[in-house]
Design brief:
- The chain is built from 14 helices and two strands, in the order αααααββααααααααα.
- It is mainly alpha-helical and about 350 residues long.
- The chain has a single domain, classed as ABC transporter involved in vitamin B12 uptake, BtuC (Orthogonal Bundle), CATH 1.10.3470.
- Strands 1-2 form a two-stranded antiparallel sheet.
- Helix 1 crosses helix 3.
- The longest helix has about 35 residues.
- The radius of gyration is 20 Å and the shape is globular.
């Protein structure tokens, strides 16, 4: 990349970072009780200093800000997973929700919720169970879609849909068995960030950092693998090893998101595609740009869920589905036209 390209990329990343800060402030300011942006910054400053907070500042720090930060982290996790799945499968339609990975993580988390538990077990069991479910699901989908060493787009999508429906049925069975927790789990499955806490924020931060560290190290290998597995192997990439590592990393960040927000679709589809149009396929830029963009999209979606029908709060999964559904149809039509040509 030349000097002009570097400057452009740096400008885009800085712009996205600025937009993310702005939407986070807006997310903390707007709600049933409007709060000014100055009060939001004052609340953060007061909390860092250990000062006694006013009621409005306590509202920001205890309720609004944890939710906004968690929304940003969830969006970042889903977008990162979308980038990684699209790179591995060389398919712009790959997405944690469409591939059934979110459903697998959801089943694992639902089983953890149904099992109950207190203290550290209640805090850590859902993300760990979600990780197992997500990893097992993507391995199953990839195996079902592979024929004679070739993974076809249509087979991948059909396998994802089929596995997703099966996992959804299994989750419903869990709800029937534990009907006393049905309302809690059903609302969680629709996607939402009610009751967000700082403890959840730090758990997701840790899982996101761990999940992103590996792909950033392997950004060069991901770029080469876009040429195809055979060509990547000729250029010195240990393809199968990289695939296993990236699948584990992607499943980790998906499980982090699903365990705290439920099933939220299409964020991992929309944001990587938009970032790829602006910055190109280089994963050294695509991954951070998608992560920031996913955080922006999720914070805005959560804000819309809170204010559109206030005081009634919509599940944020409805907002992302309304926005992402048409994008998916457009990408599918575009992909089919390209195949026909």
């Amino acid at each position: 990349m030349g000097r002009t390209g570097n400057r452009r990329a740096a400008f885009v990343l800085l712009l996205l970072a600025g937009v993310l800060v702005a939407v986070c402030v807006a997310g903390a300011a707007f709600g049933a009780v409007p709060i000014s942006g100055a009060d939001v910054f004052g609340a953060v400053k007061g909390a860092l200093r250990g000062a006694v907070l006013t009621p409005s500042q306590a509202l920001v720090m205890d309720l609004r800000l944890p939710r906004v930060v968690l929304a940003a982290l969830v969006g970042a996790c889903l977008a990162a997973a979308g980038v990684l799945y699209q790179a591995l499968f060389r398919n712009a339609l790959a997405d944690p929700y469409i591939l059934g990975v979110s459903s697998g993580a959801g089943l694992g988390a639902a089983l953890a919720f149904a099992a109950g538990g207190t203290g550290a077990a209640a805090l850590w069991a859902p993300p760990l169970a979600a990780f197992v479910g997500a990893l097992a699901t993507i391995l199953l989908v990839a195996a079902l879609a592979t024929r004679r060493g070739v993974m076809e787009t249509l087979s991948l999508l059909l396998a994802g849909v089929a596995v997703s429906y099966t996992l959804a049925a299994m989750t419903s069975f869990v709800l029937v068995l534990r009907h006393e927790q049905m309302s809690r789990i059903v609302f969680w499955m629709m996607g939402g960030l009610q009751g967000a806490t700082w403890q959840q924020v730090w758990i997701v931060v840790g899982m996101l950092v761990a999940g992103l560290a590996v792909p950033l190290v392997y950004a060069r290998e991901l770029n080469i693998m876009l040429l195809g597995d055979e060509r990547a192997g000729e250029l010195g990439v240990n393809v199968e090893r990289v695939k296993r590592i990236i699948l584990a990393a992607a499943s980790l960040v998906v499980s982090a998101a699903v365990s705290v927000s439920g099933l939220i679709g299409f964020v991992g589809l929309m944001t990587p595609h938009a970032a790829r149009i602006v910055l190109g396929p280089d994963h050294r830029l695509l991954l951070p740009a998608s992560v920031i963009s996913g955080a922006i999209v999720m914070v805005l979606a959560d804000l819309a869920a809170r204010v559109v029908l206030a005081p009634v709060e919509l599940p944020v999964g409805i907002i992302t589905a309304l926005a992402g559904g048409p994008v998916f149809v457009w990408l599918l039509i575009r992909s089919n036209r390209g195949a026909a040509l």
